[in-house]
C-alpha cells in the first residue's frame, strides 16, 4: 500500500521542526519518513548533507530546476532556494512510508494541491509575532537583520493559515504535540 503525505508549514521559529523531529523519533508506529529537501543555503551548526538537507550550490540547484527534478521549489530568500526532489518522495511513498514535509508555506500549499486527499496539511502557529521575536532572538542563529526579515515574512505568512487542513497553535509545546498526534491519527485512520 502506498503511503500518505503529512505537510508541516509555519512561520519560521514557531516550533515546527521540534514537533516534526519529536514525531519521527517517538512515534515509529506511524511509519514516518522525513522528506529531505534540497537547499542552496550553506549548512548551519551541525547540519550535514543528506541529513537535514541536500546542500547544493545555486548553480547545482538551478540545473535541477532546468531538468524538472523538483516537485516544488521556492526562492525563499534572495538566492536561497529550497525544494523537494520528486525522486525522494516517490520512492518513499511507493515503499508505503508516510512522508513528512517540513516546508515553507507556499511549498506546503503546493504539495497539498499536488497530492490532494493523500495529504494532510498542518499549519503550526506561534502565539504572536512578539513571542516569535523572542524565540528567534533566543535561538541566536540569525543576525538582527535576518530576524527582522523573518518577522516581516511571518506576519504575511500568518494570513495563509486558513488554507491548511488544520491549524495547531504552539502556545504550549506539549499541548501542540498532543493535538498534532490526534490530527494525524484521525487522518491516517480515515482510509
Ligand atoms: P531554514 O533555512 O530555517 O532551514 O528554512 C527556511 C525555510 O525554508 C523554512 O520555512 C523551511 O520550512 C523552508 N523549506 C525547507 N525545505 C523546503 C522545501 O523543500 N521547499 C520549500 N518550498 N521550502 C522549504
Please write out the topology.
Blueprint: E1 5-9, H1 16-26, E2 32-34, E3 37-39, E4 53-55, H2 58-66, E5 70-77, E6 80-85, H3 86-94, E7 98-102, H4 105-115, E8 119-125, H5 129-139, H6 144-158, E9 166-169, H7 173-189
Parallel strand pairs: 1-7, 1-8, 2-7, 3-4, 8-9
Antiparallel strand pairs: 3-6, 5-6
The protein binds guanosine-5'-monophosphate.
Guanosine-5'-monophosphate is lined by residues 12, 37, 41, 72, 74, 76, 82-84, 102-104, 107.
Write a brief caption for the model.
The chain has 191 residues and is an alpha/beta fold. It has 7 helices and 9 strands, in the order βαβββαββαβαβααβα. The termini are close together.
Describe the structure.
With 191 residues, this protein is α/β, with parallel strands linked by helices. It has one domain (5-188): 3-Layer(aba) Sandwich (Rossmann fold), CATH 3.40.50.300. 43% of the residues lie in helices and 23% in strands. It has seven helices and nine strands. It has helices at 16-26, 58-66, 86-94, 105-115, 129-139, 144-158, 173-189; strands spanning 5-9, 32-34, 37-39, 53-55, 70-77, 80-85, 98-102, 119-125, 166-169. Strands 2-7-1-8-9 form a five-stranded parallel β-sheet, sandwiched between helices. A four-stranded mixed β-sheet has the order 4-3-6-5, sandwiched between helices. The longest helix has 17 residues, at 173-189. The radius of gyration is 16 Å and the shape is globular. Guanosine-5'-monophosphate binds next to β5 and β6.
